[in-house]
Amino acid sequence: MGFLQRLFGGASAPSQPERSDLRADEPAHGYRRLTQGRSLDVVGESNYRADIEFAVGCHPEGHHDVVDAVLIWEPTNPYDENAIAVQVAGRTFGYISRADAQRYRPVMEWCRDEGFLPIVRADVRGGGQQGDGSWMEFGIKLYIASPDRLLGRPEPPQPVPSRDHPWLGQLIAFTGDSRCAINGEKLDRVMSEVYARAAGMQVHERVTKKVQLLVDCDEQTVSGNQRKALEYGIPVVSEQEFWTTLGLTAERV
Predict the structure, then answer these.
(1) Are residues 94 and 203 in the same domain?
(2) Predicted structure pTM score
(3) CB-neighbour burial class of residue 5 (10 A; exposed 0-12, middle 13-18, buried 19+)
């Protein structure tokens, strides 16, 4: 079992009665929780703010909610026959991206044929009121295993970072959102930290005087973490250089 599989896991709900004649537009007989895995971004949240607030509330201080989301395949969607809606409490929160929906279509077909609707973990962030009175947009991520893992197919081997690098054993921090993909998968903060720990480093959520390296994922802006790193004399390395030094091929996205 690889380090990714050790990190992520999830239990399935009791299996539902088998039924192979269920159409995609028919209601299923039950629900089943899918195994957790890497995060997927939900898109289009701004179009569903009223539905999101109906389900999780409207809190000026913002949200940090973990909820169960149901994935609804929409094969008759006029814009994309692979479209997968994300619903919570019967309200649409957005959609899986077009590329991810294409990847997960076999999973949705499997769910349809087994006669259940899939449930996944969803993290709801943001949505609070800012100092100028405006409201932040919501950001939603799903945590779901890869299609190959869910369907019981062999998965391509994950790249393993090298430990032959100058930061072995150091405490590091990341700043900004990743602009890279490894092995065809866009990185998020969770996966960036997984690779860093696999390469023998510790990761801190922000820059302090104890941090020994800052990985800059957004070279176009100067973050508070970058200012602190300069103030404390902490070395700063670009994200792509960081991954290359760890022996990983990172593509800009």
Answers:
(1) no
(2) 0.58
(3) middle
**Beta-sheet pairing, 250-252 with 91-96:** unpaired
**Residue 38: helix, strand or coil by DSSP?**
coil
Tell me: do 146 and 27 sit in the same domain. yes
DSSP single-letter state for residue 135? B
Query: Is residue 157 in a domain?
Result: no
Looking at residue 38, what is its pLDDT? 83
pLDDT digits (tens, 9 = 90+) for 84-126: 999 999 999 999 999 899 999 999 999 999 999 999 999 999 9
Number of structural domains the chain divides into: 2
Co-location of 113 and 7 in the same domain: yes
Alpha helices by DSSP H, the chain: 3-7, 49-56, 98-114, 147-150, 189-198, 224-232, 239-245
47, 56, 82, 124, 211 from 89: Cα distances, Å = 17, 9, 22, 14, 42
Same domain, 29 and 72: yes
Which uninterrupted H or E stretch holds 246?
Answer: none
Task: Kindly report the backbone phi and psi dihedral angles of residue 68, in degrees, each rounded to the nearest multiple of 5, phi listed first.
Answer: -90, 130
Please check whether residues 112 and 70 belong to one and the same domain. yes
Q: Is residue 23 part of a domain?
A: yes
Domain that residue 34 falls in: 3-150
Written as six digits, the tokens of 229 are 């790193």
- Report the candidate in 140, 198, 143, 209 with the shortest Cα–Cα distance to residue 173: 209
Residue 185, classed as helix, strand or coil, is: strand
The one-letter amino acid code at 66 reads V
Of 117, 150, 183, the last residue of a domain is: 150
Question: Percentage of residues in the chain with pLDDT exceeding 90?
Answer: 67
Residue with tokens 């932040």, as numbered in its chain: 136
Residue 155 lies in a domain: no
Residue the block writes with tokens 């992520």: 8
